[in-house]
Prior knowledge:
- The complex is a heterodimer of chains A (213) and B (176).
- Chain A is mostly helical and 213 residues long.
- Chain A has helices at residues 2-5, 24-63, 66-125, 129-188, 194-212.
- Chain A is elongated.
- Chain A starts with a helix and ends with a helix.
- The mean pLDDT of chain B is 82.
- The interface between A and B is medium-sized, with 16 and 27 residues.
Amino acid sequence: xxxxxxxxxxxxxxxxxxxxxxxxxxxxxxxxxxxxxxxxxxxxxxxxxxxxxxxxxxxxxxxxxxxxxxxxxxxxxxxxxxxxxxxxxxxxxxxxxxxxxxxxxxxxxxxxxxxxxxxxxxxxxxxxxxxxxxxxxxxxxxxxxxxxxxxxxxxxxxxxxxxxxxxxxxxxxxxxxxxxxxxxxxxxxxxxxxxxxxxxxxxxxxxxxxxxx
Amino acid sequence: xxxxxxxxxxxxxxxxxxxxxxxxxxxxxxxxxxxxxxxxxxxxxxxxxxxxxxxxxxxxxxxxxxxxxxxxxxxxxxxxxxxxxxxxxxxxxxxxxxxxxxxxxxxxxxxxxxxxxxxxxxxxxxxxxxxxxxxxxxxxxxxxxxxxxxxxxxxxxxxxxxxxxxxxxxxxxxxx
Lengths: 213, 176
């Protein structure tokens, strides 16, 4: 409760609130709602009359006064048709109120879309096609320069590492040959005398490697 | 049974005291009693000229009752506290609420917030009878009480009131 009813220490300058005005739409809806209220009260009245007439008709019938009972029922019927008409009018009023509110929502959506579109346009304007082209060209130029420098530097490096690379290549080649020879020798020799054969199979490839170097 | 004040069986309690300080205390005790009595018996209005209503102001055991001037003062004090209001200018019928007007006002605004009715316009009849408002404090309350609560909201600038030809055609717009 203190939220609404305590005075703040520094009252800020009141901003003009557009929603704090009564617009035409508000007056229209208010008038429609007032009319609807009047119809609701009228309906209550009619319902009371209908109930009364039914009771009167029943009483008259009990007393045997048939014509008067029929008359009371006719009056009741008339009230019921008026009630129907009132219901229909209320329905029309409700529809009108709903249409007004729906159209307000639609208008708000439309305004929001317009605002979004304008924001998008502003962003695109700040990013012109020519500027982007220029940027891409500058980028290509920079990449080209980078590649040149790279090549120049990598060329010098190649000369110093060439011998190293060749040595590594040869040693790898030899390793692979050793493994290949080992697998073929093992396959050709018979199984029982494995202990004798293994040193033999190992020796030959080593002698070959030494011969190559 | 409503909590009877301590001095219920004390005859001077039923006579408006001349001394200011004593009178203040007396009126305070009476207002508390009226509040709890109304709550207990769900009384929403007190008609000064109705004998039935006047029973609560009389103690038959000591054969004393508070006179009309005293009743008026008690009820005026209740109005000042925000728990009651007079139905009309003649001040014959006083309407009493369970909750103070400030609470009803907050509840009205809470209803508007929770059901997204800010910036929508309503009639007082609608507010009083709307089925949406069943769980809220202000549902089904007397028009005059609702109007008092709405006036509070108007001073707090939470609502704009558009008077119509009758009490219940009052237009109400909730603003943020």
